Amino acid sequence: MSDMDEHDEHVFRLTRRKALKGLALGIGTMALPAKEASASVWESFFQKHFRELGSAERQKILARLEKEYSARYKKSVRVKDTPAPEGVLFGYGLDLSRCVGCRRCVYGCVTENNQSRDPQVHWIKVLRLSKERGVDLEHSEQYYNPATVPQDGYFYMPVQCQQCENPPCTKVCPVQATWKEKDGIVVVDYNWCIGCRYCMAACPYGARHFNWKTPGLPAGDMNPETHYLGNRPRPVGVVEKCTFCMQRTREPDGKYPACVEVCPVGARKFGNLLDPTSEIRNVIENKRVFILKEDLNTQPKFYYFYSV
Amino acid sequence: MVHGRTIFIWCMVFVSLSVVVTAEAGRREFWNTPPKLESEESYKVPPPPFTEGIFPCSECHKEMRPNPQRRVLKDEHTNIQLKNHAENERWCLDCHDMKNRDKLRLVSGEQIDFTESYRLCGQCHGDKYRDWKAGIHGKRTGQWNGKRQYLLCAHCHNPHNPRFKELQPKPPPMRPENIR
Fold first, then answer.
1. Under a CB-based contact definition with an 8 Å cutoff, are residues B128 and B157 in contact?
2. Quick one: DSSP state of residue A294?
3. In the prediction, which pLDDT does B43 show?
4. For residue A227, which of A178, A216, A221, A247 is within the disulfide window of CB 3.0 to 4.6 Å?
5. What does each C-alpha distance from A273 to A53, A221, A285 come to in angstroms?
């Protein structure tokens, strides 16, 4: 044996191990961004996890994204990273005795949050339920399309992210690209998401949506006021969801989410759960309230109620 | 003794009379003085949704003699029809003031501006008024942590026919099999 080894010392022998090594190296190099790719592609490739970034690094990343989006959409785009306000836990109320199922909220949300128009992505799903059956999701219909709403014998229940206090979706993420913020909003870092869609399987409300294609977002329809964890334009292959319009609600002038402001019947209520004088606290204390799929112990902060 | 009893009876008569008189005066005063203005905070609302050119009402009504007779209007305001709003029990002058046409009138007789019409509606719809004040009934825009924009009842409900009109829904979502 030793003779043979000595003999072959300077001859190249292609072993299985060497072949696999070479193959892996080659494929790995191919997966890297091309040489002529812009610097921003390299930078985003090596970007750290959002919560591990220092403020200087964050500012650099935001500036890079602003530049990138401004060039792509040909307007001045702002990307914020406003943190959760102190002493605030966001809560949402939806008045089932008022909702008429007109879907204004669905499209108001799409406009505000830069969802893909084609292929279509909606963060809000409006379910039509029969009054006779009550809240029976098995028999709900989301593709209803009559000439006018509300229809006799039906009521309507919009479903969107319930911003669970005990969210199942964040637990299953293998790379921790999604988490719950201090103000209770569950967010996704689109630069960290690997698109495995485990979170979509874990969510009992169908509130997470996947970008199967590069989002079709016409430059004219793009909302330039964005948040890094919220409505900034998404790349292909990541999961997205409702963030209670954090680009609006987290600001010092605390605007209502877009769906609240667009609702023509005033069925949507929003506020701080920790503030005893807030609208949402008034709803919880004085109205008949329920949460969706309570038995799953997800503890949603989205309260359905009946005002009459 | 007889003298003492007479004095006692006269005293009793006097006392009961004065009680009756005072009570009657109090009752009269209660019914004749309008109730104190509620120290209600007023709510900032956008201008009332008048039909163009209809306000101030006194512009036309100034010259007319008010006719308190309940009737169907034949010449003017024929487009206004009370519907779904206790039309058999009510007519114009229950809410519109007869003397000052630019004002609304509460049951108490108090005249209020059209910008305060929520107080008029709140007379019957107390539960809605309470919820409206708390921000539960009706649409709010503005800031969740600061100034909220209130709307008058009349901005959403036609006061003469308050039931919501049916709406055309926005298109349903695409079925997954049609998304390419």
1. no
2. G
3. 82
4. A247
5. 29, 33, 11
DSSP letter at B158 equals: B
The three state secondary structure string of A63-111 is HHHHHHHHHHHCCCCEEECCCCCCCCCEEEEEECCCCCCCCHHHHHHHH
Strand partners, A304: A94, A290
Phi-psi sector, A128: left (phi>0), alpha (psi -120 to 50), beta: beta
Residue A161 contacts residue A90 (beta carbons within 8 Å) = no
Nearest to A45 by CA among A192, A179, A173: A192
**End-to-end alpha carbon distance in chain B:** 114
Q: Tell me the average pLDDT of chain A.
A: 92
For the CA atoms of chain B, what is the radius of gyration? 26
Identity of the residue in B136, B156, B179 whose CB atom sits nearest the CB atom of A279 = B136
The answer to whether the beta carbons of residues A164 and A300 sit under 8 Å apart is yes
Give the residue from A264, A268, A240, A244 showing the smallest Cα distance to A254: A244
- Among chain B residues, CA nearest to A147: B168
| Partners of residue A142 in chain B, C-beta under 8 Å | 172-173
**Angstrom distance (rounded) from CA A259 to CA A269:** 10
| Confidence check: pLDDT of B35 > 60 | no
* B166 contacts B89 by C-beta, under 8 angstroms: no
What amino acid is encoded at A198 in this protein? Y
User: What's the pLDDT tens digit per position in A125-179?
Assistant: 999 999 999 999 999 999 999 999 999 999 999 999 999 999 999 999 999 999 9
Count of other CB atoms within 10 angstroms of residue B38: 9
Number of C-alpha atoms within 13 angstroms, CB side, residue B144? 34
ipTM: 0.81
**CB < 8 Å to A283, chain B:** 136
Which one, of A172, A150, A184, A152, lies nearest residue A303 by Cα?
Answer: A184
| A169 HSE (CA, 13 A, CB side) | 31
Task: Report whether pLDDT(B144) > 80.
Answer: yes
- Spatial CA neighbour of A145 closest among B64, B95, B116, B168: B168
Whether chain A has a CB inside 8 Å of the CB on B141: the answer is: yes
